[in-house]
Each structure stands twice: as C-alpha cells, then as structure tokens.
Amino acid sequence: MAEAWPDYALLDSGDGRKLERFGRLLLDRPDSQAIWHRSLPAERWAVADARFLAGREEEGSGRWEAKAGGLPAPWPIAYGPVRIEAQLTAFRHLGIFPEQRVHWDRVVDVVQARAGETALLNLFGYTGMASLLPAAAGAKVTHVDASKKAIAWARVNQEMSGLADAPIRWICDDAARFAAREVRRGSRYDVIVLDPPKYGRGPKNEVWRLEEQLPQLLADCRALMDERSSTLVLTAYATHLSMLTLQRLLEDAFAGLPGTISVGEMALREETTGRLLPTSLYVSWSRDA
To answer: What is the 3-class SS of 80-142, one letter each residue?
Structure first.
C-alpha cells in the first residue's frame, strides 16, 4: 500500500467518494470502491477546493465544481527529485496516480542497485512520473504513449524537474505495436513498466482492449528481456480480470526466465484512520538475487 508524502495524502473515503490533498489543494473525487461510511465530518469535506461530478459513465468524462473564484490553474506536485504539473482533467485524474508510489520506489531501487546503465521501457507512460524518477536515478528511458497531449505534459514535467538533459526518448505511438516492432528489431530492456488502460485508441486509431491484447503484449515484453533483465511491473485498473488471471498470464509469458512473480492489490492508506482504499491490481516479475 502507498503511504502519504508531503505533497499528497488520502484524508478520508466513503459513500462513494475520496477526499485527498494534492499539494496546496483539497479535492473531492468519486471512488466506486469506497462503499463504507466516511470518518471525517461533513464540514471537513465541505472545504474542498474542487469537487468532481461524474457523467453517466463511471469512468467517463464529467466536470469539476470549484469554490467561488473558478477552477484552480495547474499547480506543482513534488515527489523526490521530480515535479509534475497537476491539472484538473475532464476524466477526474490529475496527471498522477499516488498509489503507484510503491512501484516508483521499487523501480528506482532496481536502477540504483544495478551495475552500469539501465535500459527502461515505460509503456502507456502518461505524464511521465514512472519515466522521470528512474531517469533521475540514472536510467536510460524509452517512454511510449499514444497521446500527444500526454507526452507534451510529460515533457513539461521533465523541464520542471530539471531533467532536460536526461536520456529519455519520448515516443507517441501505439504501445502494443511499438513493443512488437522492438521485438523485430532485436531490442532489449533491463526494466519494463506498463500501465495499460482497459480500453483505448492509438494515434492512428488503433484499438486497444486489455483482455484481448494483454497476452501478446506480455509475450513481446518477455522477448525484450533476457538473462540481464531485472524487473517488469504491470498495473491494471478497471478490469474484470482477477489477480490469478494476471499471475497465470505472466507465468505463461515468462516461462523459462528465472525469477519471482508477485501479484496483488494496490491501495492507498487513509491518513486519519489507517484504513486502506483499494485502487487497482498489479503483477510483477523480478529476477532472483
């Protein structure tokens, strides 16, 4: 589970929502997992700087409702040496997923422990936290995302973090097609991080469906790794797949590559009560020491 840090905390959750502090702002967002009762009084929730109102679809677009004075402008969020520009988006997200802190730390530890340069591939890289942190630790990073807007946002984050000269390749492409091409090129990576959506479209209108295409993508990731590779981490949000399914898929794809496979739920810990709010599933492979 992910704990709070100076620029982020989950303060409370319940009744289908969560109350979070992102830097200088207090935000109230929906969360379908939080079906229990809230712990903090209503007046504590009422002082949120903005509240997200969902549309008809649970994971679809909606709108933010702010206090008098309008919606806040983008603002910085820091984690370690990295600063990102947080924004209120129409899909309730802000450009950062705090529960992934445990994986950020794990990958940075791997990069720092390896002898020599680490080649890292970040598929579905979004705004770049999982690229910038390893780059700051010395990794050579290939960041792939199908959204030009997300990559532009990630490059702003790169500048804000003082990592303009870091060895990062920013590639706007369909992640599955890029991985397949890398296999044909004979490329290899030491670490692979992937955070695929349940459904999405590539820059040329390519369709991505997690349940249909994940097995081949994991097979391609395996082909990009060898006896010198260290780690693969996959997170899966809003999926009907179970942890056991993800484990079996990775076991099949990585058969013959020695190491340990782990699977579980990611969660955020409430600052006020210590309760856990589940957020997504993960599966990972790591080479045995």
So the answer is: CCEEEEECCCCCCCCCCCHHHHHHHHHHHHHHHHCCCCCEEEEECCCCCHHHHHHHHCCCEEE
pLDDT in tens, the chain (289 residues): 789 899 999 999 999 999 999 999 999 999 999 999 999 999 999 999 999 998 766 566 899 999 877 889 999 999 999 999 999 999 899 999 999 999 999 999 999 999 889 999 999 999 999 999 999 999 999 999 999 999 999 999 999 999 999 999 999 999 999 999 999 999 999 999 999 999 888 888 888 899 999 999 999 999 999 999 999 999 999 888 999 999 999 999 999 899 999 999 999 999 989 999 999 999 999 997 6
Q: Which two tokens stand for residue 5?
A: 């840090």
Q: Which amino acid is at 233?
A: V
| Helices (H), ranges, the chain | 42-45, 101-113, 129-136, 148-160, 175-185, 210-223, 243-253
Calpha distance 165→19 (Å, rounded): 37
| Spatial distance between the Cα atoms of 138 and 167, rounded to a whole number of angstroms | 9
Element counts in the chain: helices (H) and strands (E): 7, 16
Q: For the chain, first and last CA: distance in Å?
A: 24
Tally of CA atoms within 13 A in the half-sphere of 247 that contains its CB: 9
pTM of the model: 0.94
Contacts 24+ apart (CB under 8 A), 41-46: 44/11, 44/12, 44/19, 45/12, 45/17, 45/19
Per-residue buried b or exposed e for 38-65, using 16+ beta carbons within 10 Å of the residue's own CB: beeeeeebeebbbbbebeeeebeebebe
CB of 83 within 8 A of CB of 160?
yes
